[in-house]
C-alpha cells in the first residue's frame, strides 16, 4: 500500500518551498522505503529551488539524511527493516567500466529508485540527488542505504550523506593527506571545515584555515586548524608560504568554488604539491593560469566529487571514529529545525552563521 506522508517540495523556479502531502509507493525490486529521522539543509537544495540544477520541477528536496529502513522490495539483501542507515547518492552499479577497474567511487551508473514518489494528484516528483529526504518517509534504491552504528545521533549521521563527506573526502581520499603533511583549506564553511577535520584526522602536522570571515576562522580552529589566515586583511599565498617555511602547503583544498580562490590554492602549494577543488563553480566561471606554471610547478590538480567517497567503506568508518571521539561531526549541527522551516534555513545559510541546519523528524 502506498503511503501518504509530509514532504518539502520546490514547486517552481524561485518559488518558496512548502510542505505538501506526498505519496510514497511500496518498495519495488531493489528498492527500500526509509523512515527519515534527520536531513541537513545543503546548498544544492537551494540550487534546485533556484532552477540551477535542472528544470524538472516539482522537486522533493533534501538529501543529507539518516533514518531507519521500514520496508524493502524483492531481491534486497544488504539492508533489512529496522536497520539504521545514512542515505547516499553514490549507490555503485558494480558493472560499469569504473567499477570493474576497481574504482567504484567514479561509478557512472549509480542507482536510484525506479518508481516515482508523487503528489496526491499524481504529479511525479523529482527527488533531489535521487533521495528527497525532507520527508517523513522516502523511497530510494536499496544501495543508497548505508548501514552504520545506530549509537550515533541521526542529525549528526545524516551530514555524512553529502557536504561533510565531500569535505572529509577531499582531504583524505582525493588529496591523500597523510601524517606530517602541511594542509591549507581555503573557505571554511561546512565543506571546508570538514576538510580541516579530515586533514587533522589523517595526521596533518599543520592545518591552515583561510577565510574572509573571522567567525569562520574561530570555528575552523575547533575543527583542527592549527593556524588561521584572514584573506581580506592579508595575502593568503604569502601567509601560507610563511607558515610553511617558505615552501607552500603539501595539499591545498579549495572549498569556495571561485577562480580567484583557485588561483590562491594553485600558488599556495609547494612544488609538486596537490590542489583539490571541492567548491562548486558556476557555468560562466573561467580560470586563467600561465601554462608554464602549471607545468613547472609539477604535482597534481584534482577535483573532488562527493569527496571521492565509497559510502560502504567510508560511512561506517567515519561514524565509528566519531563515536570514539576522534571526529567532531556533532559540531557541524548548528541548529535543528522542523520540516516547515526549510525556507528560513535557506535564508540563514546566506547570513553565514550556520554550518548546517538539520531538519529532525
Ligand atoms: N576567500 C576565502 N573564503 C571565502 C571567500 C574568499 N574569496 N569567499 C567566500 N569564502 C568563505 C565564506 O566566508 C564561507 O565561510 O567560504 C565559505 C563558504 O562556505 P559555505 O557558504 O557555508 O559553503 P559550503 O557548504 O562550505 O560549500 C562550499 O562547496 O559544495 C560546495 O556548493 C558548495 O561551492 C560551495 C562550496
Ligand atoms: Zn559502476
Ligand atoms: Zn548536498
Automatic annotation (TrEMBL):
Q: Which cofactor does it need?
A: Zn(2+)
| Keywords, sorted A to Z | Metal-binding, Oxidoreductase, Zinc
Q: Which SUPFAM superfamilies match?
A: GroES-like (SSF50129), NAD(P)-binding Rossmann-fold domains (SSF51735)
Tell me yes or no: is Zinc among this UniProt entry's keywords: yes
Give the top-rank taxon of the lineage listed in the UniProt record for this protein.
Bacteria
Which InterPro entries does this one have? ADH-like_C, ADH-like_N, ADH_Zn_CS, ER, GroES-like_sf, MycoS_dep_FDH, NAD(P)-bd_dom_sf
* Stretches of the chain forming a coiled coil according to its record: none
Question: Zinc: present as a keyword of the record?
Answer: yes
Residue ranges occupied by any Enoyl reductase (ER) domain in the UniProt entry: 12-361
The family line of this record is: Belongs to the zinc-containing alcohol dehydrogenase family.
Protein name as annotated? S-(Hydroxymethyl)mycothiol dehydrogenase
**Organism listed in the record:** Streptomyces similanensis
Task: List the top taxonomic levels of the source.
Answer: Bacteria, Bacillati, Actinomycetota, Actinomycetes, Kitasatosporales
